[in-house]
Each structure stands twice: as C-alpha cells, then as structure tokens.
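Continued from yesterday's entry.
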Amino acid sequence: MSKLKAITVETTVNASLDKVWRFWTEPEHIKNWNNASPDWHTPKAENDLRKGGKFSSRMEAKDGSMGFDFGGTYDEVVPNKQIKYTLDDGRKVDITFAKADEGLSITETFEPESQNSTDMQKLGWQAILDNFKKYIESNNGSNDKN
C-alpha cells in the first residue's frame, strides 16, 4: 500500500528474552505500556499470537477527546525472535528481538501511512517503544505479573 520508505525504531532493554516476549505479547502488559505519552492509555488489548491470528488494541486520550483502534493479522511468529504482521490498513510491520551487549535489542520496521509526516510517525512509534522499555525495566522484581 505505502510507497513511502519504511521507518525503523529501536531500543535496548535490560531484561531477559522470556520476560521481554511475555511483556510484549500479553494483553495485561500491553495495556500498561502501549501509549506514546502519559495523557494516552490503552484500555483494551487482545492478542492471538500465531500465524493468521489477529491482534487489536484501543488507544485513547485519557480525557476522552479522541481514540483509535490499532490492529492487524500476524503473518509470521517466531517465539522470542521475530513477529511480522499486516495492519488492518495493509501496511507491513516487522519486529525483531535479539541479544545485545547491554541486554536485549528490539527493532521495529514499519511502512508509514500517508496522513502524518514520517518524522511524526517515527517519533510516535519510538515513544511507545521507549515506554515499553520504561515499563519492563521498572517491573524487575520477582512479581512479574504487575
């Protein structure tokens, strides 16, 4: 669909691969990190993590002024390594998880949409990724289910 150049965002988290995979894919965790700024939240998340499975999350401004659904279908799932999916609007996303010197590297490459600037999209996706890093690194106690 998109003819714009793919955008890549990445981070490195200080957490085990198993924990990163769990926090990235389990709806109760997704609801805690899937927002780009503190004035947004994700009140609903569903995830059928398998090839052909669907996922969706509802992202809303906390003041109720706006919101949108974000969802798609998994094209490939390699546990603890890679997730590829197609968004409901036809754009492709590829996420890889790999060991790095400082912990675990997460790289997301996605096809941009044409309504917002690529810079704005990159900042938004990076902010969500940074929020994931903050969430997982602040949940490093023995009770991982918070």
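--- second protein ---
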Amino acid sequence: MTTTKKLTRSENNRVIGGVCGGIAERYNWEPRKVRLAFLLSCLLPGPQFIAYLVLWFAIPSRRTVNV
C-alpha cells in the first residue's frame, strides 16, 4: 500500500507563502524550478497572481496538518 503526501505549504522552502515550495515537495520537484515556472507564467496574460493568493489561503500550513 502506497501512502501519498498531502499538499501543504512548505515550512522549509518558504519564500513568500510556501505555495511553490509545498507543490515542489508534494510532487518531488525542485522548488527553484516551480518558482521559475510560476514567474515565467506571470509574463502571460491571466490571473496567476490571484491564483497564487487563493492557493496561499486554500492550502493548509504544515503546522495545522498532522503529517
């Protein structure tokens, strides 16, 4: 039986809100690459900044979740 990691905001790889670091930890990606992908996506039209803010509030902090 495999266990999956829950998506939580990162405590170790936190730059602003820990959203990109948490996504990187969840999928075993490098945090710098996730941040770079997010920054590059901001060059395209769309609500990337608003999506980041929504994820910041929607993804629980690791402190509030028993991992």
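The chain has a mean pLDDT of 88. Residues 31-41 form the longest helix (11 residues). Will compare against the first tomorrow.
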